[in-house]
Each structure stands twice: as structure tokens, then as C-alpha cells.
């Protein structure tokens, strides 16, 4: 087990130009052996690789005939194309696998008292005009040679399965201790996407969560969690490979590198394992986790649940953040003030896990361009993390850009406080009247009063006394005077991980959102350098609509409503500058708000590294 505080940061830039993504690598964000190698990147090599990337991406962002969305809940049937893989350019992936965490509360090592939990997992193959993926005959031989395949299945191998090519975008339900795997070959592999949605209104697990299914990597960074009372974190490790892998876990916090215990774990082939973070290390303030695997790559997510007594404060499943670098963007974690709940606060977590302290300049990327912040310069001690409360943000949808003199990684958390402290009873607010009697406002606004005999007496609209509360639930006090079980108005939380602007496509699948009360979904897109942006939306019937956002100016963020029928979203850049994006989900019920957000990861795309050899003169 390693407690080495030195990370494996990416070869970053020095903040003077936008970051460039190098094709290939091992999938961990291009980690390098040591922070000292940050200055060793050869700019001629980056330029050469960028030219190759741009050539591959030209088909993804340069076509004409964009469509406009009106923000409604339906997709225009007159302006759609079918999803069929098309002939390929060379250099794209020929096989891809994504991992999804499944119910993060189930299967925790040593935990036998987890509540019931259900999550939905969706997956989809890319539209034919997103890029030019390889294809094969759908009626290929049984061995699949030359044919595209795509399947959504469970890690347990005995649950639901779906053929993405036969059925279009697919969705399965997970309610046992299992994750999900998305596998594709040939023309279905490039730009494969998956996503997971969790929703619970139950005490102990209330909250909304959204996370992207991600490609495996040998190093994964996770930013989330905390040491406040009532907060728990579940580290979910998914192994898409056939052979077992060994995973080491390192944690940095507000007090520096944490001592880990039993942080070397084995994840079985095509399986998953779940561990409480507190079981791997002592409680850590502002934790940042690095997962390193040997024997094969792994997928990692961090579940977070927060409860203070009877007050539910939200849930989220945190996806990976980018490996440490010097120019990062934290996508939008919210698109406006929630319609329910109390005050909101935005916290930026930054970690400098290397040997050098970091000085980080933070700016906001808004619809009107870059906005300077009063607390824009943050100093992070070497090997430490820090939480920065941002209370001077401009209104509207925004992302955050971080430029640092040494490698850092980051994430942001939006917290929505409960609307009040008065308890809820069957979803109704309970107050105490002048005479000390419990007075409850029911769902229809009628006053519900506990009478002298302990029976619930409700004055209905016609003045008649009734003995049932809202939802026909009896509101009677026991003979000893005990009140019915009470809960309090709920809060909520959402996390997004930092990423780097990428010219490669990015995307996520979106499970059906019908179960979210008052459901609203928004795509937020940010650019650092001006570039044209295209969005592809795939609906539940396999139809595609394309939205041309046009050329976005430097340092801007724009928001686009996502209709309820959309099951997958892809974002592409028209040039080498790259974009970042996130999806924000919102809803509310009588108990309080629901909120979740997810950073869109880069999708499987390039099939091989580009090697450049320099001959000395």
C-alpha cells in the first residue's frame, strides 16, 4: 500500500495557452511519473499531435445544416436521422468498454444493514454523423468478425441485458449489489456513452444522483466527501476486464497525505467492490482520492450521502476528476437558484498532491465572458487540499477556470440548505399552536390539530372534522402521547469534477427521468478559447437532433435545456480549442429539492497513440 504524497500529474501547459489533449495514453489523463516532468513537454510534439486530432475530428464538427431547439419537451420528428454506424476513418477505437457503479450503498464490505436502493443505467451508441466510426455487417458471422456489436449488461452476469444496436438506446434497472458494463466493437465503439441515475426519497438515502459511466484507467482521481458528522463515502471499484486487478488507494486532505489502512484491494474480473472510505483511512477533511490499479485498468466512483440527525442533506455519485494539471475547468454545477430549499453555497475543492505548493488563480466563465472573483487567488500547501467557499459569484450559469503554477486537481460542490427546521409529518409542515397543540398544515392547506384525546382532527374545506391526514395517512398520537414519526425539510448536494478542455467528443447517456418530481435537465457548455460547438441529442426512439451552438467566444458558458425524451448527449468542438460540459438535473417534492450534476467525460475515440521520433541533426 502506498502513502506516497507525490501524484502522477499530467504534462500540463504553463497557463499561457489552452491545454492540448494528446491522442493515446493509458486513459488516466496522460499521467507522468513525477510533478517535476510538468515542464518537460515538447511543444512541437503537442502541435504535431493536435494536427492529427483536428484531422480526425473535422467530420465531427464541420458539417452544415444545424437545427435549433425551442427548449420544449419533444424532439422534432421532421428533423431527425437514424442511428447507424457508417464507414470509418482510420485511427478510431475498434472496441470500447465503460463501467457504471450501480447502487453504491449495496455491497459495501462488512456492511449488512444497507437500505434498499434502485438505480437506472442507460447506454447508447453514437449517431452516424457524430464522427465516422467503423462499421460492419449487422448480419455478420456468429463470431462477430467485421460486425458492430454493443451490449449493456451487469457485472454479476445474471441480470438484465440489452442489445444497443437492436434496441437503440437501452436502459436496465439495478437493485442488487452489482454494477453495469457497456461493451461495443467495430462501428459501435467510437463515442460509446453510458450514464447512471439514482433517486430516493427514503430516510437515510434521500437524494438524486447522476454520473457518467466511464472508461477504465490505471489511475483515477476522485474529489468529493468530507468529515462532517453524518457524511459517508462509498468507494465503488468496477473491473470491466476478465482478470482480477489490484487497486491501491491514496488520500490527501486538509491536513496533508492521509495514512491508509487496508487500502490495497482486489477487484474480480467483470466484477466490482464497494468500500467505505472511512474504513480505508481515518476521517479526512476535504478528501481527494487517487485510485491506482495494477494488472489492468479500473473504473472508480465515489458515492456520498449526508444526513444530520433526521435532516436529509443529499446524495451524489462523484465521477472522476482530471489528473493534476496547471489549467483546468470545473464545469457548471448549477444553472440557477433551486425553486425549493434554502440558501445555496458553492465550494471549490483544490488539491496540490505533489511536492510543491500551488498558487491558483480562479475565474468564472459566464455567458458574458470571464468574470474576476474577489477570492480569485488561492494558495494550497504541498500535499494538501483546501475548500474555498465562493460567495461572490455572478448570477446565472457559470463554470470555473483554474490556472496554477504547479499541478492541481479539483472539484466543486453545490449545497442547498433545507428550507427550514420545522419537522415534516407525512410530507406536511408541523408547527405548535398557541395552546401547545401540534398544528400541521396538510397538502391541501387544511389545518390538522391533535385533539385532547390524541386523535388527529382536521378541519376540511367544508368545515367537517376528519381523522385522516394528507395522503390518507392517519395522524394519531399514541396513548403515551408520542407523536407520529417526524422528518425535517431536506437539503441537497451536487458535485462536478474538474476536467480539461478537449477537442475529442464527450458525452453521457441519460436514463428516463419520469420519476423525478418536477424534472428539469440542462446541458452547460464552456469554452476557454473561442470555438464552434455542436450538440447531438438522441431520443428514446433512436432519433437524433443536432443543435449548432455556433462559435462561442473566449471564456464563456452557455446553457441548453435537454428535453425529457432525450436519452444521450454528445458535445463536439469544431477545432482544436476544445470544450467542457456538464448535465444538471433538478426537481422537487414536498420534502425539498432534488439536485444532481455530472461532468461529461471524453468518449472512447482514438484507437492508438501517435508516436513522433526526432532525429538529431
From TrEMBL:
One family name in Pfam for this protein: DUF5719
InterPro entries assigned: DUF5719
Domain of life: Bacteria
Amino acid composition bias (Low complexity), ranges on this chain: 453-474
Region (Disordered) location: 1-36, 128-158, 453-493
The protein, known as: Secreted protein
Species of provenance: Ornithinimicrobium cerasi
Source taxonomy: Bacteria, Bacillati, Actinomycetota, Actinomycetes, Micrococcales
Amino acid at each position: 500500500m502506498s502513502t506516497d504524497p507525490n501524484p502522477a500529474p499530467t504534462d500540463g501547459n504553463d497557463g499561457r495557452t489552452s491545454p492540448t489533449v494528446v491522442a493515446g495514453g493509458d486513459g488516466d489523463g496522460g499521467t507522468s511519473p513525477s510533478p517535476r516532468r510538468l515542464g518537460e513537454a515538447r511543444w512541437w510534439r503537442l502541435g504535431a499531435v493536435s494536427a492529427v486530432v483536428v484531422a480526425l475530428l473535422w467530420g465531427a464538427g464541420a458539417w452544415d445544416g444545424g437545427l435549433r431547439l425551442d427548449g420544449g419537451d419533444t424532439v422534432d420528428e421532421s428533423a431527425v436521422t437514424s442511428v447507424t454506424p457508417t464507414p470509418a476513418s482510420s485511427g478510431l477505437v475498434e472496441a470500447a468498454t465503460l463501467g457504471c457503479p450501480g447502487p453504491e450503498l449495496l455491497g459495501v464490505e462488512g456492511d449488512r444493514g444497507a437500505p434498499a436502493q434502485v438505480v437506472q443505467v442507460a447506454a447508447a451508441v453514437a449517431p452516424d454523423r457524430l464522427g465516422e466510426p467503423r462499421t460492419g455487417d449487422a448480419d455478420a458471422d456468429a463470431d462477430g468478425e467485421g460486425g458492430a456489436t454493443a451490449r449493456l449488461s451487469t457485472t454479476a452476469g445474471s441480470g438484465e441485458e440489452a442489445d444497443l444496436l437492436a434496441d437503440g438506446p437501452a436502459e436496465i434497472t439495478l437493485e442488487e449489489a452489482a454494477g453495469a458494463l457497456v461493451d461495443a466493437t467495430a462501428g459501435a465503439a467510437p463515442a460509446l456513452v453510458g450514464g447512471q441515475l439514482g433517486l430516493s426519497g427514503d430516510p437515510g438515502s434521500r437524494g438524486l444522483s447522476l454520473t457518467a459511466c466511464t472508461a477504465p484507467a490505471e489511475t483515477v482521481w476522485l474529489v468529493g466527501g468530507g468529515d462532517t458528522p453524518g457524511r459517508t463515502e462509498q468507494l465503488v471499484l468496477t473491473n470491466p476486464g476478465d482478470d482480477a486487478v489490484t487497486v491501491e488507494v491514496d488520500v490527501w486532505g486538509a491536513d496533508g497525505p492521509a495514512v491508509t489502512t487496508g487500502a490495497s484491494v482486489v477487484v474480480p474480473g467483470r466484477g466490482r467492490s464497494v468500500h467505505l472510505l472511512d474504513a480505508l483511512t481515518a476521517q479526512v477533511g476535504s478528501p481527494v482520492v487517487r485510485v491506482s490499479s495494477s494488472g489492468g485498468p479500473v473504473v472508480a466512483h465515489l458515492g456520498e450521502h449526508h444526513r444530520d440527525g433526521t435532516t436529509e442533506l443529499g446524495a451524489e455519485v462523484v465521477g472522476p476528476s482530471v489528473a493534476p494539471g496547471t489549467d483546468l475547468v470545473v464545469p457548471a454545477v448549477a444553472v440557477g437558484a433551486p425553486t425549493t430549499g434554502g440558501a445555496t453555497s458553492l465550494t471549490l475543492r483544490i488539491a496540490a498532491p505533489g511536492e510543491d505548493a500551488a498558487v491558483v488563480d480562479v475565474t468564472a466563465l459566464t455567458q458574458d465572458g470571464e468574470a474576476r472573483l474577489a477570492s480569485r487567488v488561492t494558495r494550497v500547501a504541498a500535499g494538501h487540499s483546501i475548500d474555498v467557499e465562493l460567495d461572490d459569484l455572478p448570477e446565472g450559469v457559470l463554470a470555473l477556470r483554474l490556472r496554477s503554477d504547479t499541478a492541481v486537481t479539483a472539484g466543486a460542490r453545490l449545497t442547498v440548505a433545507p428550507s427550514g427546521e420545522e419537522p415534516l409529518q407525512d410530507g406536511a409542515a408541523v408547527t405548535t399552536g398557541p395552546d401547545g397543540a401540534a398544528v400541521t398544515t396538510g397538502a391541501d392547506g387544511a389545518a390538522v390539530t391533535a385533539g385532547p384525546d390524541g386523535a388527529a382532527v382536521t378541519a376540511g374545506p367544508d368545515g367537517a372534522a376528519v381523522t385522516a391526514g394528507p395522503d390518507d395517512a392517519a395522524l394519531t398520537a399514541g396513548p403515551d402521547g408520542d407523536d407520529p414519526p417526524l422528518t425535517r425539510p431536506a437539503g441537497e448536494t451536487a458535485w462536478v469534477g474538474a476536467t480539461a478542455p478537449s477537442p475529442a467528443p464527450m458525452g453521457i447517456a441519460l436514463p428516463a427521468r419520469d420519476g423525478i418530481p418536477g424534472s428539469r435537465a440542462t446541458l452547460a457548455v464552456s469554452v476557454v478559447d473561442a470555438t464552434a460547438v455542436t450538440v447531438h441529442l438522441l431520443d428514446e426512439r433512436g432519433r437524433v437532433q443536432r443543435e449548432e451552438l455556433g462559435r462561442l467566444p473566449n471564456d464563456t458558458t452557455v446553457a441548453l435545456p435537454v428535453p425529457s425524451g432525450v436519452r444521450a448527449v454528445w458535445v463536439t468542438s469544431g477545432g482544436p480549442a476544445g470544450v467542457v460540459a456538464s448535465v444538471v438535473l433538478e426537481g422537487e417534492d414536498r420534502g425539498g429539492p432534488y439536485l444532481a450534476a455530472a461532468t461529461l467525460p471524453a468518449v472512447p475515440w482514438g484507437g492508438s497513440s501517435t508516436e513522433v521520433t526526432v532525429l538529431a541533426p
